[in-house]
Fold these 4 entries.
Entry 1:
Amino acid sequence: MRPFVQVLSQDEVYQVHMTSLEILEKIGVEVPDEDSIRYFEQAGAIVDWEKKIVRIPSQLINEALAKCSPSVTLYNSDGTRAMVVGGNNVYFGTVGFATNVLDWRTGVVRDATIADYEEMLKLCDVLDFPQFILPPAQPNDVPVELSDRYQAKVALLTTKKPLIPQSYGAKETRDVIQMAAEVVGGIDRLRQKPNIAMLVTCTSPLVVRQDASETIIETAKLGIPLFIESGPMSGATSPVTLSGTVALANAEILCHIVLAKIVNPTVPVIYASWARIFDMRFGNVSLGCPELALMRVATSQMAKYYNLPCGGGGTLTDANSADIQLGYEKMVTAVVPALGRTNMILGMGIIGQENTISCECLMVDSEIARFSNRIINGITVDEDRLGYEVIEEVGPRGTTYISNPHTKKYYKDELLMPRLTDRSVPAEWFKNGAKNATTIAKELVEKYLSKYQKPELPNNIEEKLDAIIKGEK
Amino acid sequence: MSILNEIARELLNGNAGEVEKLVIKALADAIEPGTILNEGLVSGMDVVGRQFKDGDLFIPEVISSAEAMKKGLTVLKPKLMEQNTKQLGKILIGTVQGDMHDIGKNLVSIMFEGAGFFLKDIGVDNSPEKFVKEVEEFQPDIVGLSALLSTTMPAMQRTIEALIEAGYRKTVKIIVGGAPVTADFAEKIGADGYAGDAVAAVDLAKSLL
């Protein structure tokens, strides 16, 4: 058995679903974009043009869901299969648009630059985890209005791993998709083997933002996958109750999916959520909280109820330094969503909610992802592994397990090999310099960065991408 | 327990209805409105502020207390005006250009109103020109600028510059706040103060007037 966790019973899933339907049918969503309102109206939604409120009957939701696929396959930019997003598969990735960096060389927190962003992506490319990239930083040394395209450009040039880019509007969406198409060999190839899924975020409560509308419409028209996420904050932009937050988030994600499927019935969609809380002591969002873990499992259950691939925030912390708080928050918000079989878990490499990127914390996160991966792979039970023969061979008071061929045969599969984790006896640990996890992480950052190799890309690709950014193409 | 202590206690517990009743009774008992304000309402709010700072009281309770304060003040205000008791001051508050975030600003607004300030909240995404126009019309003592994105913080500087250009800088105190904002940044852009949370914002505003 592969272990998994659920937080909602079937009945409870259904109750959440019914609440979401009622929200969409009776309360509706605000849709500032008139093109989107027209799409909704033509499909049968009830529209108040004056207030820009769209009410969506259940039938439209059922129709949209019937057109969805239970999995979306994303590829590396070289066309190799990277992730089958769906079912019980779990992948870890980065997130954030952070504007700060915790410099791993100096320990200083400062503005994040393109160079910091690129270095982080190099480390991501070399490591096993993360398996996909959502731009971790919004570098401060590029013009703000072009940042989405610079983030995409540097990511496409630095790593071949799948990307979840953002875009600020219709033209920007077309530019980013065109950039990805240049890298993989054309729009048809991109459609067939997409290495991107365009990011769409919802504004809670119940708003389909202008740029979200534009991104959905342009992406759906081109048939490129959409990664649609809603992240209300319990107590601030949704009810403080976790079930209320899940019902609201669910409604918001569903209405964005409905729009996407009206524009193009075949566009691949991934259902994602950042449902989190508003902390009532600090007056700030909290991401490293146990409630995030619970709600991530719940929103993933809702996605699975609809037979949709799912994702969302996880592996997150509110800590502003690489310390013990980071450790426990990141671990619980990684392993619990993993057990909930959230297909794409976004959060590696970022700390202080989503304010600061850190290479050493990315190393810690990759170890956390490996631990989580080991947990969800569970315990394999079969005749040979039950080991009756080897138990008989070693016998009572026997000491030869360590040298037994059975051990050599299975140990690498059964036991996670520590990479960052230190397990020395105390005397050895002191002798080797009493290094804590952060120190070891920094050593590993240096080691892995030195192994980075630029991916093979088409000739003159950088010039082509620059031309798109400058509007020359 | 004296009626003033009762007012403070009911305010601490966030019972707006009780506070209103007790303030009316205190006035009927011929207690001075200024005394009811300071020794009943304000003294209750001071305890709220302290307990929030200590982590013993949280935002939802602070909000209920601020609303109880507001209800008490609604009864007291006409009496205070009659006696020409100095009004606490006028505050104009808004989120700067390009920024749609308002949860923090809304909390601060509730606290300012609860403290007895006359408040105008101009919402989100306000250009420097909009701030100038509103300052001209509303004539506040304090202008509060809020931003949640580090990318919209420069708009705070532009807003201050616009107020300088329009000749209003000397007539207002400018305070700034929001998650990425710091005291250093406030100083750099020439603001008069920075506060890290809603309770501190009220203290700051009072100290500037």
Entry 2:
Amino acid sequence: MNTLLRLALCILLPAGLSAQTDFDRYQTLQSSGKIPDDFAKQAAAKLEADTEDREGLSRSEEEQFLELIHYGIGEILHSGICVYGDPVSDYVQRVANHLLADMPDVQKKLRFYTIKSNVANAFSTDQGIVFVTTGLIAQLTDEAQLAFVLAHEISHFTEKHVVQTFDWNLRNYRNSDHIEQLSIYSKEKELSADEIAVAMCYKAGYSDEAIFTTFDVLMYSYLPFDEVEFPKTYFNNDYFYVPELFFPDKKYEIKAEEDYDDEYSSHPNIRKRKDSARAVIDNYSDWGGQAFIIDQEEFDRVRTISRFESIRSDVIDGNYPDALYSIFLLEKRFPESLFLSRMKAHAWYGLNLFKENNRISDAVDRTADLEGEIAALHYFIKKQSKLGLATIALRQIYEIHTRYPEEEDITLIYNRLLETIASNKRFKLEKFSEKTFDEAALAYQAHQDSVANANATHVSDTVQVEEATDKLTKYDRIRNKKTKEVQVAEFDSTEFYLYGLSDLLQNQSFRDDFAKWTKKQEELDEEDERISNLSYREQAEIRKQRINNESHLGVTEVIVVEPTVMTFTRQGLDRAKSEELEALLSDAIDYSAENVKTNIYHIDKRTLEKEGTDAFNYRSTLMAFLNQIVLEDAEAVVPVDFQQLQEIEAFYGSSKVMFTLVEHYQRPYISVGGAFGMLFAFPAFPLYVMRQIFTANSMQTTFIVLDLHNASAEYANTIYFSSPVKKWYLRSQVFNFLHDIQQKPQ
Amino acid sequence: MKLVLGLLFFFLSTGSFAQNSYGYFGKKNVLSADVTGCAPAVYWFTRKNHSSHNYRKSGSKLVDRNDLFDGGINLTYCHFFSGKFGLGMEYGLNFSSMAGPSTFYMTTAYGTGNEYGFEIRHEQLKLQSMTFLPKIEWSFLGEQFPIGISNQFGVGFTTTKVVKKDYLVEVVSVNGNENNLTLPNEYDPSKILNYENINSIKSITLLYAFNVTTPVARNLAINYGIRYTLNISPELFNDNPNEYYYGYGTSDEVEYFSESGSIRNNIRSRKLVSIIALNLGVSYIF
């Protein structure tokens, strides 16, 4: 089997090497190949199969450790952001293979997976999995740096640092200075891993300089992957102009220092790590390594993929200014990239939404936190008014839409933006000038000049104008202000955005689109007005009808993603119990679907072994969609993976997806004080005991139905249950929900 | 009653309609049959304080021993208006007992002038109560009705009567003289237990119950919980009959013995201290 596998790798690897990534039509990293056991097998099965001897741990401690590593790592593997068999993981594997060329046994034990996250990190687990984030790869400058990071993680594995730290923690967690001591212990392990990693890099022929720059990468990884000045003219074109006053007039210094206080850190500070590495390197007098050994081109491809992924992650996480800065960095190299335009549209749409919902501080850094070149963009966005930001978003998205009119998701973003803007009472096209900023400025200048001339020659005219103005009533003045268009006689550069739609105002198609959404909004307002004039009883009836219609979706087919359950006992999260309840809930879904006669299609982490990589990818895509909805706190979002969602819809023939999220608490607690107190009120004692036992069980179940076709959250319902959780109760709960969404809206 | 209506209005007006589907598999009606039981410890305690005796039948003899168990059955229909609120009607039959109208009797032996003291021991009285009780079921914590934990509040009406039967009566000497251990002529058990005079005791019943309903099948659940009841029997509903009281001394002062009034009072006290009970039953959900 091994021979066959190697043979297959020999055939496939060159094919993989020659693979090119179309960055213009980039799509997010997906897993490929046969699904590894790490992903296919359930934590309980892995735990049972794990027979490795953990020296120093008692049986119960070992059970605790195994539960921690298998269930804990299982959560990462199935978090939807972890991928296998992708170009990044494959490249990382190749670099690791080179490092481990003379350690075939270790090589066989290790598996390398990529996590799509902007946290620059890599970590290894006791079971031999090494995770590397795209955020880390995006920051690297050469292969040798990656090699050093991998060597460091591999040495954690070979030296069994995970289990040793667990063991140490068990024996010392009661100490009063436990945190400080743990930090010291952990730092020793890190320095030890660095020392071994240095030796591995030397053996593998990698450059020693890269080791020091790797520490720099880690230190500055909170900054974008490059430090390029954001031009103040970035937004300017023939029709749009942003005055420089909206950009900071100073540079924001980068504050990170090598010698920071690491008293409570798990890792030594960078200065100590560099010094320690220097001491080891000094032992090698003949060090003469290279920055690239495997493939420089491949490194560049993988890093670019990671950078593209970092933009996607920022969009999902709502870090829109960061995404825009990364787009700015990459669009010079990939000017034709549809992906970058798509993400830019997402980012501006998200920013406008956050601003409208008064959540802009969730996306933009506080002034005190501004650092580096990206600070200019954060500063600029921070300075914008609601109307200003809406105009910039419209301008940017309109241009992208004009460039890619065939792209459905961009059209969707454009329409949703128009819908949002149309609902903003302050955004009226009449407010905007038909002149560009430059034209208006020039006209204003000319006007000022003519006024100056007129003042000199026609004093009597001025007096007449003043007299006419004096005759206006208070209400005339108010009316004039309300209906005021941008006048030549008034020009305020801080309201630059009012001159940013001059070409759009002349575009009938845009006007029609905007009018359509405005009309829709007016109809909604009229409807609200009509309802507010009805009697209380009629209003209640309408409200009830609306609530019913919210859940009556006519769903007879649904894709069901396995329930996510978290059971908390008094000891904290109990993963084994969570998995048991997950299984019970899945059974309830099957039972109820059969009884309600709803067809369900499972995308379930427990059946991945059978369903394979496609199902795994579908699951990850759906989870990203759900994350985006939760984060944006909006019913309708435009999914970052729009195309993949359409594929899923086509594959299953259903556009509805159901998620079930459960928080379950099982914390019976009878306090000695409470019980003692109850003895004085004897008849209340049994009630106290019963209440403490039964009400300590509670469950919060959230059902969410997403619509892939409309890219929206159709319905979400949270039900609180406070009793011991039983099979039949779960069945009833799911039955009610499926029955509810099966009803047709009236 | 106004209070009940007031509460009902309050709950109906604030009832949650936020969740569209509620009920157990969408079903919102429940018919429950429960047995209730308790060890009447409060009664034991109060009785002991009053130094009264509770004579239970043991074979053909009476022994002074507490009854260990009060029991009953409840039938309840409840309709749930939301996952947090329901209205129901409970019919309950409860069986309990209380100390009988035992008494002391002193007499003087004809010719000798010796005084003899007798204790007339009366078997404990069996009581049967019937309750009609409208109640609300309310969940403070979740939206799971008709299953899960519920808090029940009710205000109802209970009638209690002494069960008609041949109660055993024994005469025991209290001063060691074992002669003449026969009931005196004036002591007529049928008059002592004048059922018509005792009539039924009417009480207002207040209920709080903490109940757990655990489903075991598609339309079946088991219930268990704890019930606190307070039976208040005001004078207003319970006029004592115009009756004679027995007395000591010369026979012309005694017409006949009657304890109807004190029995009625004892029943009222007995019901008042029936505070706590456990219940277990099944529910049919439809």
Entry 3:
Amino acid sequence: MDLAYIDNLAVNGKGILHKASVTSKQVMVLLVVISVILAKSVAALSFITLLLLIVMIISGLPLNRLLPLAAYPLFFSVVFALSLEGWSTWAVIIFLRAFNACLVMLLLIGTTPYHRIFSSLRKILPRLVVDGLYLTYRAFFILLEQTANLGRSLRIRGVQRPSNVIKNLGIIGQAFGVVLLQSWEISERMYKVMLLRGYELNIAGFNAPKIRNLTSDIFSIMVGSCSLGMVVILQWI
Amino acid sequence: MSHLHIPDGLLPIWLLALGFGITGLILAYCIFKLKSEDYSKILPKLAIMSALVIVAMSVPLGFLPYHLNLTVLVGIVLGPWLGFTAAFIINLILSLVGHGGITVIGVNTLLIGLEVFAGYYLFHVIAKKARLVWAAGLATGMTLLLSTVLMISFVGMADFDLNQTTFGHKHEESATHNEGEVHDESEAHLAGEATLSLSRFALLVLPITTLGAFIESLVNVVIVRFLLKVRSDVLPVQELSQDIPEEDCSTESTGC
């Protein structure tokens, strides 16, 4: 889950969707998810897949780095596909629904910095949750680095015992214990910093300049409308 | 795999709406219960534990298609109200990166939230009779098995008739209707009938999740043992008023 790479794409990208407002992209996601839910034909879902891939290319997102992220939900689609009785094209539909839903989310997070996504949620979520999202996102990168360093230290010291699963689990447990402890101490330092800076539940009050690009907004809404429109045309008309 | 990795478009709308509705109500109650807390104190803990769970979910356990959840540990450390809030944050962030659908956030939060609640209360109940480390292990195992059963129940409740649209339209039964036969030309391109076999689904999922529950119980035993030795104040030791055996004590432990 290379969130740092996705973050970099979102912040430094120059594609058409990067210039669109968060609201228009959220509308696009909503329309695509609705069309994915409604679609019952391989043709409609394939159209959505093609459309989203083209939009990703136009937006300058590297498919070779992002498509592997879609493999994770696809793997679990296999479980549901294998559980089907009466084999039909539904197995393919399950795959395509999972793939398309993941693609549109990658499109959103690959073209929108995380703080804008979280800020937009201020209108519907409590402040504690939104500020929690900010800090969690930041803390994730800190913990990821610590976990990677710890794993490297363990490997260098030859602590891991691949042949002894129970021993290895014990080592994993202690490693997570160390990470938990370090993260607990980080949280205590965070508390002191927030006290010093007079935190009053307003991290999400960060006033980023609003993005205003009508062409990009219309483009993103058109993408969502096209996918929904094609589902309606192919299935009901 | 206690939370649903189900993608968007498989669960019916009524279940998704119910999931969001109940999650919203519980979340509102949790925020109400946390109103009197110092937010600058609880927010870093909430963020750190949520981030730890996301990191744990990013680390697969070798060849197994399973990752640690640590949600029971979150319940033990943060308590039920902050723990449920963490469950929602975790699911929201994971759905943004495609680890679980965006429409199943409500249902997933209920599942993980259940692990937090059940883990917290089971830990407290078992800790009155057993040592803290074993209480953690038993609470983890029981909670994860319970959440797996619930996950399978959710899937069963969804009543997977994949010919059913999400607006509840069903193909009418007819005497001449065979599997795959279409009713008119406009539906010729649609898929044939298919039903999710719950027993087959359970057969695929149960072995992995049972093994995963066992592994996570072991890992949590080790983590809790480590914390008791080094920083027992991270755990609710004082609440339990339990005497910690000397071998589990640390100089900072308040229970020794």
Entry 4:
Amino acid sequence: MIKATVHVTNPFGLHSRISSNILKISKSAQCHMEIVYENRAYQNDSILLLLQSGIVKGSCFDVVVDGKGDLEIEKDCYKMLKNYIESFLGDII
Amino acid sequence: MIKGLGVSAGISMGKTHILNEPPIDKEMRANLKHHKGSPVEEKANLDLAIEKAKTELESIISMPEQLNEIKEILQAHQMMIDDPELYQGAIDEINKGKTAFEAYESKATQFCELLDSIDDDYLRQRVHDIKDATGRVLSNLSGRSSFKLESIVEPIILIADDIPPSMAAQLSTEKILGIITNQGGETSHTAILANALGIPAILGVHDATSLLKISGLLWMDKPESLKSILIKRRWMTTWL
């Protein structure tokens, strides 16, 4: 399992497009992903629940990637997510 | 004089078309209830409506020269349409005896209300995305046909209450000479697309659809600043 904390710098926060792309990345990597924010975990299957998280600029949340035993898948998924998050959402701290 | 927020500069002259999408009314709803099938049948109706909506979105996504940003927005819509939480919630309601329309609408509304309670203006605006996406499924379930830009024969200035993202994605300079809406702002999809395509647009006119009731020629003048713009109805009386 890989866990990282994201500090959101995108002025529009975790909005539809970013949520959709993050979910797509984890699904394409066939990896389980969770976003944890304010003690609530959002799984990688519901964009509507993720949007309700209300993650805005300045927020910090955890992203947890679980390859369910497959370390290669886990690492690849994390790498893709990291690249995307750092390009479009915020900083991994 | 009519005032609004000029979000895309330019000069345009042409006939107007007021977009009036009738809501799904009581009669339509009663009709759906009257023809309610078994839960298995209603579930099948829902699945078909969702599949059709996803295909419709796919055809908009794959339009030539579609902006990447718009593709991503509509891909998000595709995800919303059969979101597991929304879908399973609707199925549960169908199993309790509701029609597919009632079930899907009630669940979609719940999600919109939850999003509406977020304390951030931009994220709250995403309610429009959910309404646009799920509205497509509801139209398919009700049999109501939505306005299609491809039905426009001659280029027009489009006047509407609001232009949903999936319709904004179909805007083209061949058919749309200008846009005037009651709602919307600088960060709306309409504003983004109008700018990208160079279509003059004035949003937030508040009363455009009722003030500009009769189609006529509208001259949308180039704004002096993008903060506010005046629409001159100089030639409307000549053409009535």
